[in-house]
Amino acid sequence: MQTYDLIGLDMDGTLLNSQKTISPVTLDAINRAAAAGKTVILSTGRGISELTQFGEQLSSIHYYVCESGALIYDAWEKQILHAETLPPTIVEQLMEIAVPEDTMLYLMSNGYSYANRRDLAQLAHFQMDIYQEMMNTMVNQKEDLVSYYQETCCPVEKLNMFSASPEIRERLFSQVQKLPVATAYAEETSLEISPSGVTKASGLIWLCQYLQIPLERTIIAGDADNDADVLRIAGLSVAMDNALPHIKELCDIITADNDHDGCAQVIDTYLLGGE
User: Fold this and answer.
1) Contact at 8 Å (CB) between 166 and 42?
2) Which of 24, 141, 203, 230 has the highest CB neighbour number within 10 Å of its CB?
């Protein structure tokens, strides 16, 4: 059996179950992998602030590939190792595209999240109510996010548009795709926008070079469109059983779903099983 040194776990729909928690079985597998000298990383669209609530549970995880590859974070040293940002002119164009639509702007800067207070009060309208508790405590709330950006010109690694419907997302995508950015669908109606060329794959490549781990000795587990690029380059690509059908098709194996410890199965069978 091929020996692997690193496993990267997506968060939502993969490591997290339907209740947005991590099961004891999966946590135990992660801790055993780390104790065995394996590198377990997060490969997520979330920013640093959105991962804070899991910091204690995931204390054995040293590195995060955050914001769909735009930010690489050393969780032990609490240090950003690498970041890619959207050009300010592009951020302004994206805001101009989003504002006329029934959509919630959500930007990430230095790993922290920002959104309008009024939008956060109606997350169900944007099909994001499952994240209500997290966003209430982890998101920097602004009265006018566009004005805040114009005043501060803060660096933006990633910008999300949470739409009220799939039809609105399609309209937004038709305009956004004309710009030099990377895009990915997420959740039911969300559009994730990153700097051109930046994906979870580019983040994994950067981290593997930093850690001197060959890509062929990596495992990646995911479930959604923003996992596609990184699954294509991993040594072993793993789809959760709850993954989108086309994600399953491109993966080497399919594990149990996120409510039945699929990540733990992969760790035990492929990361630790080859020892």
Assistant:
1) no
2) 203
